[in-house]
Amino acid sequence: MPERQPSRPVPAQAFSPSPSLPASAGTVLAFDYGERRTGVAVGDARLRTAHPLPAIAAAGVARMAAIAKLVDEWQPERLVVGLPLGADGGAHRLAQKVARFAHELEARFRLPVAQVDERYTSAEAESRVREAFGARRAAQASRARKLDSYAAQLILQQYFDEPAA
Predict the structure, then answer these.
(1) Which of 44, 62, 96, 149 has the most CB atoms around its CB within 10 Å?
(2) CATH assignment of 25-81+89-161?
(3) What is the 3-state secondary structure (H, E, C) of the chain?
């Protein structure tokens, strides 16, 4: 059997970030705010890819402490928060809470925070989770825990896909 060559790192100039993103764009954390649980995703702005992380099952001070651990671990250059809008584009009942959450993130971590229209992300996340895990009753608890973070992943991917990102 021939010996495998070790893979060589790809030079940084091989990645071509979008002209709208600065060359230093890097890690981004995204949040799908919920009153009981907050979905979390992490992504790379250069590659424009997003991946779900475990949801934060806490509120208030405990939620911020969990986010502080994530910020410390991932060292993001910016944060993204899903802005809940109704089907008609009007503000959702959680819109004010989400705006306060985004402001608190910006003030506490001194990072830029973008808000992204999250309409239909929960429905899309539910569809993807159902497809991935099936509709079996045993998987329902697992789906519920993953749903918020899949929604955060979709929010972050939408942020990357928007021309002004």
Answers:
(1) 149
(2) 3.30.420.140
(3) CCCCCCCCCCCHHHCCCCCCCCCCCCEEEEEECCCCCEEEEEEECCCCEEEEEEEECCCHHHHHHHHHHHHHHHCCCEEEEEECECCCCCECCCHHHHHHHHHHHHHHHCCCEEEEECCCHHHHHHHHHHHHHCCCHHHHHHHHHHHHHHHHHHHHHHHHHCCCC
Instruction: List Cβ neighbours of 18 (8 Å cut-off, separation of 6 or more).
Output: 48, 165
